[in-house]
Amino acid sequence: MDRLNWLEERRRSGNLRQLFPVKRMPDGTLQVEGDGGKAVFHDFSSNDYLALSLHKDLITASRKYLELYGTGAGAARLMSGDLTLYHDLERQVAELKRQEAALLFGSGYLANCGVIPALAGRQDVIFCDRLNHASIYDGCRLSRARLVRFHHNDLNHLEDLLRSKRGQGEALIVVESIYSMDGDRCPLKDLVLLKEKYGCLLMVDEAHATGLFGAHGGGVIEEDGVSSQVDIAMGTFGKALGSYGAYVAASRSMVDFLVNRARAFIYSTALPPAVIGASAAAIRIVQEHPELRQDLFAKVALFKSILKQGGLESLGPSQIIPVLVGESVATVKLAEQLRQRNIFATAVRPPTVPEGTARLRFSVTLHQSDIVLKETATALLEILGR
Ligand SMILES: *Cc1c(COP(=O)(O)O)cnc(C)c1O
């Protein structure tokens, strides 16, 4: 491959990915130093939905764990790195997700790449929602199982495929509960009926739901009351929980199995203690402070109500609000126009999303004041001429 031509082609089509260094300020805004001095942006692209990454309890807990236990785990869990603090956090996760047990992974990406190949192999089949995250697809590829993709959130299509392609081996259905780029929600109650009817395992990625949905922040599986029918509930500490790392929550025997089979768990150093301190504090906060979720969804409603006045309806019930543009070049231009008004919303383009569906993805977080939300929605409508 000619790399320079490849990059040039990406640039021409408006799909070049580029880094954009920023400083995160204590109030969650982004500061950028350029030729014209400093500029400040309101961040509509972070997944720090509850603003926990700057919460004093997380910082205090993180510092405490750092000072007590050092900077690194020193080894993988199955060597000498199995510090008791991981087990404490796993108990907290299991309780939050209403499962028997839990297992930590280095990141959500690693969890999906580790768990899926542990559950399905050459003889098996994986039913995968078309819009699933790249890490899920990578896990499916690593598994070498037959990959069957169903239309996004379309359970009729899934059932057709289950009838014709279920086979005799293990069958795994993988979905997200809140979709990362569309912000819509999986019909989990109906999905669990299907998974039982066809004898499949069900894995639910709750990356954008944990901490935000459910009476105790246990995610959509808690809100829909289906925790006991979900075989593997996966999620990350890097989004609403304001920290880093990831988990799967499942039965005790499933966790025992993964300890023996998930290569991304076995062959990787355990997370740094300071990260665990922050994650443990975050779980306590989301369990004890439902008002954070209520505040967030009041802000979401405010933002959406203004967009709706301009005819921009969102698909989902969530804090993720995509504004579909279509062409990549036009999407990048819109992002630049917003940046001139101190609003930072990343243009999400192919191959992250399907061809022709480039969009701005706004996420509402507790870092944003109501005034900023109003101004942003109004500015967006103005630029779009609505
Ligand atoms: C972000 C994300 C991941 C990856 O999690 P990290 O902890 O950031 O590696 C996995 N699945 C979904 C749906 C995500 O949005």
Automatic annotation (TrEMBL):
Residues 43-368 form the Aminotransferase class I/classII large domain. It catalyses: 6-carboxyhexanoyl-[ACP] + L-alanine + H(+) = (8S)-8-amino-7-oxononanoate + holo-[ACP] + CO2. It comes from the Bacteria. The modification N6-(pyridoxal phosphate)lysine is found at K239. Its EC number is 2.3.1.47. Its cofactor is pyridoxal 5'-phosphate. Pfam families: Aminotran_1_2. Keywords: Acyltransferase, Biotin biosynthesis, Pyridoxal phosphate, Transferase. One of its GO terms (biological process) is biotin biosynthetic process. It is an enzyme of class 2 (transferase). One of its GO terms (molecular function) is pyridoxal phosphate binding. Catalyzes the decarboxylative condensation of pimeloyl-[acyl-carrier protein] and L-alanine to produce 8-amino-7-oxononanoate (AON), [acyl-carrier protein], and carbon dioxide. NCBIfam families: bioF. This is 8-amino-7-ketopelargonate synthase. It comes from Candidatus Desulfobia pelagia. The lineage of its organism: Bacteria, Pseudomonadati, Thermodesulfobacteriota, Desulfobulbia, Desulfobulbales.
